[in-house]
Amino acid sequence: MEWETVIGLEIHAQLSTKSKLFSGSSIEYGQEPNTQANVVDLAMPGVLPVLNAEAVRMAAMFGLAIGAPIGRGNVFARKNYFYPDLPQGYQISQFDKPIVELGHIDITLEDGETKRVGVTRAHLEQDAGKSLHEDFAGMTGIDLNRSGTPLLEIVSEPDMRSAKEAVAYMKKIHELVQYLGINDGNLQEGSFRCDANVSVRPKGQEEFGTRAELKNINSFKFVERAINIEVERQIDLIEDGGSVVQETRLYDPDKNETRSMRSKEEANDYRYFPDPDLLPIEITDEFLEEVRKTLPELPGVKFKRFVEEYDLSEYDAGVLTANIATADYFESVAKSADAKLAANWITGELSSHLNKEDLSINDSPVNAAMLTGLIKRIEDKTISGKIAKQVFEAMWNAEGGTDESAADKVIDAKGLKQITDSGAIESIIDEIIANNPAQVEQFQSGKDKVFGFFVGQVMKASQGKANPAQVNQMLKDKLST
Amino acid sequence: MSLTPEEVKKIAFLARLAIKEESIEQYSEDLSGILHLVDQMDAANVEDIEPMAHPQDAMQRLRKDEVTEINQREKLMENAPATENGLFLVPKVLD
Fold it and tell me: Which GO BP terms apply (chain B) (predicted)?
């Protein structure tokens, strides 16, 4: 039988605020345990939550970016469950009146097609603390620094039909929240987390199959693998006469398998109700207008502008707009140097160096000013593209300083200036011709291939500095006389 | 309506309350009484009335995004029965 996969994702994006959702504690990552947890975060008796305005603004911004209505009187609700890293005994979340209602986002599939994915809702909620299960004399350690950190839970419609589509959607949301500056995109530190609801159904069947929820799959690679392995498991199970149980499953990347975490039937009774400690959040037209003004240029718009304004290929524009740091870097270079050269250098030499050393573009040893200086020297023919790679390498290794003059300093220090003086090139050519009579004869008897040999010799003799176009022209003239 | 003993047990479990088997009937009666009281509200005509999320007719006040709290770990931990390396210790949980 042919099967169809149905996937919906729940993404938890930690909002880039300074303080928590309901308290003035810092949310900075990696601090000493329990040093950023105050009486509210610890749920001491009698404390009251006070809502962070910035979290509301960020959530509204996300809603506007996905074309969703913003809930005018959205409401916080209590989701009740007991766990030691949740001292309140309930999580303050949103239930039937979320801040962001139905929106959508367009993803690009492998074949270049665009697919629209529905975003059911996005709501504000507080994060829980961390349980550390290492052995503390048979007890569990609790760190509440994360308790109360603001999250935006972004829930998709079950619109994805393959693991690849799910990853494309996840990347798109990941890119968007960083563009908006509402999330730092750090999957390793857990500021961007993803759960996947996965089910299968016979192709053509309207009704959804029973789904399993895959928890905390925290890399793009693992999302794809986890979904694929889960789909395989479900199909095998059904084809062997079994049936899928609705449950939470954990992906184990080492064994590449999913396994049941717990049966949630009983525990799943969250008894949501409106939190009496919090009033509805007012969203006014004026507020939304203010937020709309602060919306940055979104990835899709930037992509189109790059293609038109800088005459870039769609491929290059796609790579350059994939994250806002790269897009900004590019624009910074392209404002005073050739845009196509800038695109080539960023997607080529710079990317491969960054990948090799696993650096982000913000940490690149060659900054935008330095690359601008380098490209200007290619443009004015001071150096050839080949020599430019040497200069780039030197700048990467911290030679020449960190401003736009770095390339010039490297070129001077290493004597890499291109030779465009035709007299100088001519004397090199004459010498090469005089020293290689056999090859000259071959060329003149019609063996065109030998021409490359001469070019190579001249370039070698000039240590790569002779202007290649001039060398070609002059060699042609000399050899055919 | 009247709650079954199973429902009473489930409610107690969800609230992590230990109740004695012999008290279940009493709980069932008491809880059913409360539900009955609430049920009477169903008689009210609420057509065209927007449900309120809160009895107070007001909107949430917001706080500026500022870190105002300082580290008070030592003080806050004085109440904890067990701590180690800056962590609160609780009976082992696995899941």
Answer: glutaminyl-tRNAGln biosynthesis via transamidation; regulation of translational fidelity; translation
Torsion of CA B56, A77, A18, A323, to 10 degrees: -130
Which residues does chain B have within 8 Å of residue A38's beta carbon, measured at their own beta carbons?
69, 72, 76
Question: What residues of B are in contact with residue A136 (Cβ under 8 Å)?
Answer: 84, 87, 89
Region A21-41 average pLDDT: 97
CATH fold group of domain B5-43: Histone, subunit A (1.10.20)
pLDDT in tens, A220-246: 999 999 999 999 999 999 999 999 999
Could you list the residue range(s) of the whole structural domain that residue A153 is in? Answer: 3-287
User: Cβ B60–A282 below 8 Å, yes or no?
Assistant: yes
Reported ipTM? 0.91
What dihedral angle (degrees, nearest 10) is formed by the CA atoms of A346, A350, A352, A357?
A: -140
Q: Are residues A243 and A386 in the same domain?
A: no
pLDDT digits (tens, 9 = 90+) for A310-338: 999 999 998 999 888 999 999 999 999 99
Mutate to test the interface with A, among B6, B65, B84 (most CBs of A within 10 A): B65
A193 and A305 within one domain: no
CB contact under 8 A, B71 and A35: yes
Cα dihedral sign for B72, B74, B78, B84? positive
Task: List chain B residues with CB under 8 Å of A138.
Answer: 92
| Chain A contact present for B71, CB below 8 A | yes
Please give the structure tokens belonging to residue A198: 């996965």
Establish how many alpha carbons lie within 13 A of residue A203's alpha carbon, considering only the half-sphere containing its beta carbon.
Answer: 5
B67 has a chain A CB within 8 A of its CB: yes
CA distance A394 to A408: 11
The minimum CA-CA distance between A290 and chain B, rounded to whole Å, is 16
Out of A175-189, A284-298, A454-468, which region has the weakest mean confidence (pLDDT)?
A454-468
pLDDT tens digit sequence for A371-428: 999 999 999 888 888 889 999 999 999 999 999 999 999 988 888 887 777 788 888 8
Q: With beta carbons less than 8 A apart as the criterion, state whether B63 and A50 touch.
A: yes
A43 contact B CB<8A: no
